[in-house]
Amino acid sequence: MDYKKRYEEWLSNEYFGEETKKELMAIRDDEEEIKDRFYRCLEFGTAGLRGKIGAGTNRMNKYIIAQATQGLADYIVEKGREYMERGVAIAYDSRHFSREFAKQAALVLAGNGIKAYLFEDLRPTPELSFAVRRLHTAAGIVITASHNPKEYNGYKVYWEEGSQILSDIASAIEKNIEKIKDFSAIKTAEEQTAVHQGLLRMIGKEIDDEYMEKVKGLALRDDIDKNIKIVYTPLNGTGNIPVRRVLKERGFTQVTVVPEQENPDPDFTTVGYPNPEDTKAFAYAERLGKAVGAEMLLATDPDCDRVACMVKGRDGDFIPLNGNQTGALLIEYMLSSMKEKGMLPENGYIVKSIVTGDLGKAIARSYGVETYETLTGFKNICGKVNELEREGGCQFIFGYEESIGYVAGSFVRDKDGVISSMLLCEAAAYYRSQGKTLLDVLDEIYRVHGYYAEKLISLTLEGIEGQKRIERMMREYRKNYPVEIQGRKLIRYLDYERGIAFDLMDQKEDALDTPVSDVLKYLFDDGSWYAVRPSGTEPKIKIYIYSKAATKDEAWEKIEDFEKMIMAQLEKVD
Ligand SMILES: O=P(O)(O)OC[C@H]1O[C@H](O)[C@H](O)[C@@H](O)[C@@H]1O
């Protein structure tokens, strides 16, 4: 169906309310806007459905939520009675309409005879993963757009092991969605009826308490200096209550929370783009940090599955740590503490993505710990954990990505900003008791393993035109890529879409055993490499550049050379 037909259908079908029709009537003469809202239906990307809030098939609204949930409900019904009774746990964040969308999803499930466990108020995404495992539900839903700007919302789906669905279930749900030709076929229960029939149950404190105990159970040491001064910002999202609570219960007495960003604010008034990967999100925390003499700043993203930190440097300024550096520090802290305490398993492993740097892997190897790699997305990282758990014989220690997502332990199958905030504070407090900051420890790591540098470049290209240009860039780059960069020679490239790895030395092609994904990765003879891929959560093309050298300057020189060459190549594509 073309976009115009979809638009007309939404205007004429009685299922769509007056508000929606009014919103759509207002864009009647704006062809571009109609096209943008209706040229496609939202699809499951890196982290579920994600889009701008508004009326249309390419937008997030209660109809799209109902439609997606009907698709999920059909999938659960196909699985049988037992799955329907086990039901679905639902959480939501602080965004516009998150609460309403969560309720809508619960009522569609109930309308299909599936039990819904709805959190009474906003909760971090990882707690939903915990709830799925704890309540033994068939599935889970979180209404969140993570760190996207305020105009966005999203819909993440979890399956019974507590991790986000992979492409097999996502395409089964998408097929079910396609079958819904008429929105009025979606079954929705009345709230009262759902409660009365035992199909809608509220959950809250009991899950919080158990989750908290589990998180604290991951603590590795108590010989730490808990007087470390920390400034924390939940960026107006869901982290405020759980992160504060875990730090308090672990005995950290000097935690100050940024007051302007403490409470939920769907407009993210003080931060704009609430992504702690971007150091601008730390502006308020930095100011407060200087005023109170903090040694470390922490920021969780709005659904609190990710955390970033900044550490006070020698001159008093706060220095940001990127996801690769924080991951490396957490690996070093965890593995060295486990080793010291005789807790390091012989068959332990960590998981990272193919675009995450190699320093964590080098550290893990030095402790005899294996590293597995997956495609981008925590669903893939935790999917690997699920798979290895089924096979048995090895023990998961830590999973992480360069995009500041980390998890430890086995009770949450997603990245967890609460767990990682606790571990980061613990690590910082432990090293403080030895007179070191996390920056000092990072330097020690570089001295032992070599200097690793990395740069992530994201080009934002919005709308249909942007999407097309990203497609063109990927298509062109696939055919035309540099084989030499300032004397460094390309030795191997991997094309995850075509499922091949090509070795330039012996001109040999191997098949990759990873699922198909639009990612290109180029490896050079000096150990440097880079990858190019479209983002699955934002209208961006992402370029990840990595180098390793004996010194910092040398490592950065390489990054700059690579950046110039890659960007020149990409910018040729208009
Ligand atoms: O690079 P993108 O496709 O935008 O994904 C960025 C991040 O999005 C979500 O948070 C996923 O759970 C992460 O695993 C992923 O790294």
UniProtKB/TrEMBL annotation:
Q: Which reaction does it catalyse?
A: alpha-D-glucose 1-phosphate = alpha-D-glucose 6-phosphate
Domain Alpha-D-phosphohexomutase alpha/beta/alpha: where?
A: 43-181, 209-310, 322-446
A single GO molecular-function term is: phosphopentomutase activity
Identify the Pfam families for this entry.
Answer: PGM_PMM_I, PGM_PMM_II, PGM_PMM_III, PGM_PMM_IV
For this protein, what is the EC number?
5.4.2.2
Question: Which residues, if any, are the signal sequence?
Answer: none
Q: Which InterPro entries match?
A: A-D-PHexomutase_a/b/a-I, A-D-PHexomutase_a/b/a-I/II/III, A-D-PHexomutase_a/b/a-II, A-D-PHexomutase_a/b/a-III, A-D-PHexomutase_C, A-D-PHexomutase_C_sf, A-D-PHexomutase_CS, Alpha-D-phosphohexomutase_SF
- In terms of superkingdom, the source organism counts as Bacteria
Q: Name one GO biological process term.
A: carbohydrate metabolic process
Q: Give the protein name, as stated in the record.
A: Phosphoglucomutase
The species this protein was found in: Thermotalea metallivorans
List the top taxonomic levels of the source: Bacteria, Bacillati, Bacillota, Clostridia, Peptostreptococcales
- The gene is pgcA_2
